[in-house]
Amino acid sequence: MLLDSYKIAAHNDDLLKSHSNKLNFTLSEIANAEAIIQKLIDFQIAIPSWALGTGGTRFGRFAGGGEPRSLEEKIEDVGLLHALNNASGAISLHIPWDIPQNYNEIKALAAQHNLKFDAVNSNTFQDQADSKYSYRYGSLQNVNKAIRKQAVDHNIEVIKHGIELGSDSLTVWLADGSNFPGQLNFRNAYENTLESLQEIYEALPADWKLFLEYKSAEPNFYSTTVADWGQSYSYVQKLGDKAKTLVDLGHHLPNANIEQIVSLLLMENKLGGFHFNDSKYGDDDLTAGALKPYQLFLIFNELVEGMDTRGMNHAKDLGWMIDASHNIKDPLEDLLQSVEAIMIAYAQALSVDRKALVQAQAENDVVRAQEILQNAFRTDVRALVAEARLRSGAALRPVELYRQLNVRKELIGERGLKTMATGL
Ligand SMILES: [Mn+2]
């Protein structure tokens, strides 16, 4: 379904007075508000093709109805989000769950919704029906050369799909590791993985990037072959300039200082992209900002500081994506909430008085430094985020409008109640 722009305009008209009051107050509180609004308008967060249906755990999955049945319907869903918030202007495809049948038709459909194709994602964590070998004991790390080759060839095929769609990066996440002590020789697993990654890297076009995502545990519970940022860094440094580390917020051991990781990776010019979600225990894949909004702000604070130091374009030079699972919420509402939380954290980070912070740090004024950060975090920037949407033709309150328009009911009417999108 397509949202009529007059419905968005009518929604905004109704809310305009109350929005203007809030905005005027915010403008009086934040010195660089106009520059922040402009940056918010430019900032886009990709939606992965696997996030549009309900997710699940190994215990069960409870579909909510109206889930997209095809890649075309997934693109339409991301188009809906983008129409509502003008901040979800890209889709990230997972191969082989979402192999395009006709590139031109898919590209035309995406263009109709003002969507670009973000990083393409390979999958060597599952066996496919037509694959010759199993990844039961790993893919790029496998002791069997023929299995490694199958996994390398798959990644190269994913790059080819991406080239056809106009994507410019490949994300590699490996489930490789071991479940029991003694199962693997760690060094051999590393060396096999490096050799496989080098073969994939060779197939990258000149203007592409390879993102190597790390994860501390799961599905393997004793060792993971790319387990943390140091291990990912060790690989990408050997691979070359086009290889970067990808940080997924849920892929750390408890209490890891993710903002420090981000800062150092940026310093080394090895941060490539980001997967947003939130967690309490492990890779919980909950809505971004749902549990630890202060941590999300501190991460953005380092992102902004580090990108500005390197003269990077916030919107274009790193890959931004949501990687969450929507087990009990309507996936589209959940994604709107995640994008909103990310935009708020980004706006707060942009509002930090950086000059004052540098001075406080130079003077070892710990109290002042804390005041500066917490002041930015506690300032309500929601009116700036809403204003960015208003100026780009999106909705002042996306979730509210989504509900008023009964979007899910319409989607169930179109697609049926018992549809289930491909994904986990
Ligand atoms: Mn991820």
UniProtKB/TrEMBL annotation:
Sample GO molecular function, one term: metal ion binding
Pfam families: AP_endonuc_2 (PF01261)
InterPro entries: L-rhamnose_isomerase (IPR050337), Xyl_isomerase-like_sf (IPR036237), Xyl_isomerase-like_TIM-brl (IPR013022)
Stored PANTHER family: L-RHAMNOSE ISOMERASE
Highest taxon, organism lineage: Bacteria
Descriptive protein name: Sugar isomerase
Residues of the Xylose isomerase-like TIM barrel domain: 100-285
Keywords: Isomerase, Manganese, Metal-binding
Gene3D superfamilies attached to this UniProt entry: Divalent-metal-dependent TIM barrel enzymes
Record keyword Manganese present: yes
The UniProt record lists the keyword Hydrolase: no
Transmembrane segments: none
